[in-house]
Design brief:
- The chain is built from 17 helices and 13 strands.
- By secondary structure, the chain is mainly alpha-helical.
- A 3-stranded antiparallel sheet has the order 3-8-7, with no helix packed on it.
- Strand 1 and strand 2 (90-94) form a beta hairpin.
- Helix 8 packs across helix 9 (223-236), helix 11 (333-342) packs parallel to helix 13 (376-387) and helix 12 (362-370) runs antiparallel to helix 13 (376-387).
């Protein structure tokens, strides 16, 4: 479970947050954040948050004021209630027994914080419209605006009870120092992604601060407050797929915590004209109710939400990215690049490896990069064999082995880039007394959380390396898993 998190499958750091067109996930394109940029970002990430921390962040007064405000604003009686649930912070627990499909949460449209509401209520609406700021940025500015108003005059800030209920920290990567990123994520694909996320937020913050310059309330906005707001959005904003994928903050519902095996999400219900959540399982009275953030790996959850799920709970969604690059010294690199482009591929590609399957196209791509053609015609012949119409694709036996050799070598290379050893990471978990059945919160045990991610990524790379020559219908690793208990998947 996580600290005050909520999601549906589409919930992620929104690409609209970026000033340039980039993908945050490294499956397709390498990060635009270079080595020199990373050095600058280390200083940016290391700056203190500058948010006034609450002495008692889970006080009864905060909880009761939030509930009263929500009810005054039109929230109907709920079948769950808010409680402090331990390291994850706030959570929602069942007030009575719940069955699958029961209405656990119902939040009316009037309580949703959306771009439309921001543009109608914010003092910075004119700036947002003039600069055509994306809705993700608008929500961040609205959070900061109401944070500042709550600090100045809480009695006259409509959203003060909600703002006070929000955490001071989430544990996600925006709160990490540059030293922590380089030390804890060294060798992991998550390191590049972490710097990219920080880079995108830094650009957004700078653009916003420049945009509000001269505004009478410009002093509301600061680098520290905006980073806090973006950090909260990472872990709280929801894209309502049934409402044209609208972004929204949803007070009360955003207290739901995540559990990897939950299959239900929160979404807009047109008939009810409300955001509704119905569980996929039974809950006893007093038992915490969980939502799914979507099929996310431990590394993704750590960077975005600030926690790593328990060892045995997330094997099906664990992944580690393995990147391949066309050899520039290949005499036929040019024709190969053109052939890849013809079939919608680039000369570098990243594949998400998983424990129980090989990603589609992995072996084909590796075979094409590895084989040594003797003519342009041979390049086109094998490209058509490997990437042509799906029904006609085949991996020729004469290049199959060299492709698998390349995959195995890249797994070796990826494993060699990690800092420290597997044994060191295991000892780290023992030192922090991590229990296999519990989530690891970044705020309390950041080094242990990162060690768990490294162990899981390494396990996938090792199992891929060892299984790549096992013939079959693509379930090479699945066969391996049948001989290994789930508890030992990441050992």
């Amino acid at each position: 479970m996580a600290r005050n998190k909520l999601s549906n499958p589409a919930r992620t750091f929104n690409p609209q947050l970026q000033l340039r067109t980039r993908l945050l996930t490294p499956q397709v394109r390498e990060s635009a954040c270079g080595r020199k940029d990373r050095q600058n970002l280390k200083g940016y990430a290391a700056k203190k948050a500058g948010i006034v921390k609450k002495a008692q962040p889970y006080a009864d007064e905060i909880r009761s004021n939030l509930v009263k405000w929500l009810q005054d604003e039109g929230m109907p009686d709920q079948n769950v209630e808010i409680r402090y649930v331990g390291p994850a912070g706030w959570g929602l627990v069942a007030k009575k027994p719940l069955k699958p499909g029961d209405e656990a949460i119902k939040i009316p449209e009037s309580l949703l914080i959306t771009s439309e509401k921001v543009l109608a209520e914010s003092k910075f609406a004119a700036v947002m419209k003039e600069k055509k700021l994306p809705e993700y940025w608008q929500l961040a500015m609205f959070l900061v605006e109401n944070y500042a108003m709550t600090e100045e005059d809480p009695e006259n800030c409509k959203y003060a009870p909600y703002i006070k209920s929000l955490p001071d920290e989430t544990g996600n990567v925006l709160e990490w120092t540059g030293r922590e990123i380089s030390d804890l994520l060294k060798g992991s694909p998550m390191e590049r992604l972490a710097y990219q996320m920080i880079s995108d937020v830094k650009e957004a913050v700078q653009f916003i601060l420049k945009s509000v310059k001269g505004h009478p309330n410009a002093y509301y906005m600061s680098e520290a407050r905006l980073r806090w707001a973006f950090s909260l959005l990472f872990s709280r904003v929801v894209r309502l797929t049934s409402r044209d994928r609208q972004l929204a903050l949803i007070p009360w519902a955003d207290m739901l915590n995540h559990k990897p095996d939950v299959q239900t999400y929160i979404d807009w219900d047109e008939k009810e004209q409300s955001v509704v959540f119905r569980p996929d399982r039974q809950y006893r009275e007093g038992e915490e109710v969980f939502v799914s953030y979507g099929p996310r790996s431990s590394g993704d959850l750590l960077l975005t939400y600030g926690f790593v799920p328990s060892t045995a709970s997330n094997p099906e969604t664990e992944k580690v990215d393995l990147r391949f690059v066309l050899d520039g010294y290949d005499p036929y690199a040019g024709p190969k690049k053109q052939a890849l482009k013809k079939y919608g591929l680039d000369s570098s590609w990243t594949f998400p490896l998983q424990l129980n399957r090989f990603p589609i196209g992995l072996v084909e791509y590796a075979c094409f990069l590895a084989f040594r053609p003797k003519s342009d015609g041979e390049v086109e012949f094998y490209a058509k064999q490997l990437f042509g119409p799906a029904a006609q694709r085949v991996i020729p036996a004469e290049i199959d082995t060299i492709g698998r050799d390349l995959i195995q070598q890249e797994c070796f290379n990826a494993l060699s880039r990690y800092r420290g050893s597997v044994e060191t990471d295991r000892l780290m978990l023992e030192e922090f007394e991590v229990i296999a059945q519990e989530s690891i919160m970044s705020q309390d045990k950041r080094a242990a959380a990162a060690a768990a991610v490294r162990l899981r990524e390494r396990a996938i790379l090792r199992k891929t390396r060892d299984a790549i020559f096992r013939k079959g219908s693509g379930n090479f690793i699945q066969k391996l898993l049948r001989r290994i208990p789930t508890a030992d998947l990441f050992s």
